[in-house]
Amino acid sequence: MADGSDGTGEEAGPRNRRIDPTERAHLLDASGYTPPIHRFAPTPDLAPLVRRYWMPVWSLPDGRVSVQRVLQYPVCLVVVSHDYALLVGPSSGLSTQELSGRGWALGTMLQPAAGLALAGGPVDRLTDRTVPLADDALVAAIRAAVGDDPDDPDRQRAAVAAVEQALRPMLPVDEEGLLVNAIVEWVEGDPEVQRVGQVCEKFAITERTLQRLTARRIGLSPKWLVQRRRLHEAAERLAGEERPDLARVAADLGYADQAHFGRDFRAVTGLTPGEFAAEPRR
Asked: What pTM did the predictor assign?
């Protein structure tokens, strides 16, 4: 997936650097198309609040619509475009976004810790919901920074800087927020985590406490965290291997059989693993 950078990971400016263009959560559209996506890392002090910033810039022929599909992470998003501004809650299923004509959007992928403050209470009130972004000053600052040239790297960084200025008063992150960040990071990063009980053991908390914590801070269940990590890994392998062995993929992900894997994958994506693997990639 292109992000408009050279892919080296070198510093692209004094504040925010471009980061790895690979994104396992992004499934592309059914034709394999994705617009150029520019991705930036947060400044170090905001890392407990922000995972990354991304900015697609697209130009499609008249009459063409591209439906971008995403297996979202357990986080809230702030998305500001030339014509909309949204706070996007955590998505339990497959997220889709239609692109047409010409446009851009600056997205902020927040850390799990950030959702409580932005939602104004427990994050489960925002699960599978999108609401207008209430910060008019931030929206105006981002649009002014981007102006009429969304491909300009300096304008992109200026827009990111506007977001960071708005988020910085949310620091420092509270202890509960740091805990939920650590839990999510561990589950997402360790393919050996197959059961909720392993999470409880790792962080020395009861399953009931864990359930309350994830409902309050990320709006999703502990079981969802494990299942979503498996689906991300599955999508990455199905897209990256020329002729994936579906039975092997299922076994490697901890499924008892290929049929169970296929049901889980189709329930979320609408496609069987074989159908997804056969889609074109660009």
From this structure: 0.88
